[in-house]
Amino acid sequence: MIRLFVAIEVPDDVRSRVDALCMGVPGARWVAPENMHITLRFIGDVDEVVCEDVIDSLLMVRSPAFELTLESLGTFQQGRIAHTLWIGVQRNDALNQLQSKVERVLVAAGLEPERRRYTPHLTIARLKDAPTGRLASFITEHEPFRLTPFVVETFSLFSSFLSKNGAQYAIEETFPLDLTFRRAMGDQG
Q1: Nearest Cα to 40, choosing from 120, 112, 126?
Q2: Mean confidence (pLDDT) of the chain
């Protein structure tokens, strides 16, 4: 069995800027820069045959490249207990369309539909017994938070392996987006 998810990689310069924030909250297990990503769809544990079907399905996704902006900080909570600290993604129709296309092809390939509403974000810490006041102060200290937009040119299928040091991610396959966007922006690179 292999544990899979589909995500957008975050560029190194963005990872460095985000990593510089990652301190000062007791009970936070900070995400390593190399593990920072924006999930499009969690798949879960599948066998090798299903993994190949997933890759074949994702090859059918056609979507333009687009700019993405990370902004604002927040938490996911269960009741009153925060369990995840994240950076939000500015509303982006192209991102939502890409996520919808990924969802459609995966359901067509036989995976169960995702029941949760898509909330694009970049997880920066998992929280355990983080003091509520310190967490609120951390968010207040860094707001308003906004990074320079970056261009998304690909999305990837990742595998996840749990180790004693936490999750380790590996790219199984990368899928290009239509680069018409970059040409329209005047970038020849």
Answers
A1: 120
A2: 93
134-154 pLDDT, tens digit each: 999 999 999 999 999 999 999
Sheet with 70-78, strands from edge to edge, namely: 28-30, 121-127, 81-89, 70-78
Cα distance between residue 69 and residue 87, in whole Å? 10
H/E element holding 81? strand 81-89
Q: Are 106 and 43 in contact (CB under 8 A)?
A: yes
pLDDT by residue (tens digit) across 88-109? 999 999 999 999 999 999 999 9
Segments of 18-165 assigned E as strands: 28-30, 37-46, 66-68, 70-78, 81-89, 121-127, 150-152, 154-163
Phi, psi (degrees; rounded to nearest 5) at 96 = -65, -35
pTM, two decimal places: 0.92
DSSP-derived secondary structure letter, 33: G
Give the alpha-carbon dihedral of 110, 116, 120, 123, to 10 degrees.
Answer: -100
Neighbours of 40 (CB within 10 A): 25
